[in-house]
Design goal:
The protein contains five helices and five strands. With about 150 residues, it is an alpha/beta fold. It has one domain: Rossmann fold (3-Layer(aba) Sandwich), CATH 3.40.50. Helix 4 links the parallel strand 4 and strand 5. Helix 2 packs parallel to helix 3.
Length: about 150
């Protein structure tokens, strides 16, 4: 046997990566942002599963669908939410999300990720829930790792 090729017995066991979050939900109507942000999430290994919804109503529908899975219900524990979207904007989504009655959703970390520079947007978010993280786009690996 060639000594430069290790035998299967000498290879290290596959290491499982501990994820900080089990399921991240990106909620943004910008397809390019979603594509880039999903790549960043995958590169950071911060979340085991990543889902995308292009408006707040679709996000609520997805959360209900995932949480009603009969075999293994899934709940997001991190959400990146844009403010300005059609159908249901980010602020309205957060209001509706808070009305859901799944105990598993109470600890979900919400990050408002927006291009808005208006102080009123920040004030509205913090008046709704002071624990929400507010960040301007673009998303970065440094920011993700700080969560």
């Amino acid at each position: 046997m060639n000594s430069s090729n290790p035998s299967p017995q000498s290879l290290p066991a596959q290491v499982s990566i501990p994820y900080k979050y089990q399921l991240t939900l990106l909620i943004d109507d910008n397809y390019i942002d979603n594509f880039i942000n999903k790549l960043l999430l995958e590169a950071s290994n911060i979340s085991q599963k990543n889902y995308v919804a292009t408006n707040g109503q679709l996000a609520l529908n997805l959360i209900e669908q995932l949480s009603s899975e009969s075999v293994e219900p899934l709940f997001p524990d991190l959400m990146l939410v844009d403010l300005n979207m059609p159908v249901m904007d980010g602020l309205e989504f957060i209001r509706e999300f808070r009305k859901l009655h799944h105990a598993e959703l109470k600890n979900c970390k919400i990050v408002v990720l927006t291009s808005s520079i208006h102080d009123n947007d920040r004030k509205n978010i913090y008046s709704l829930d002071p624990t929400i993280v507010f960040s301007n786009k673009p998303l970065s690996l440094v920011f993700l790792n700080s969560l």
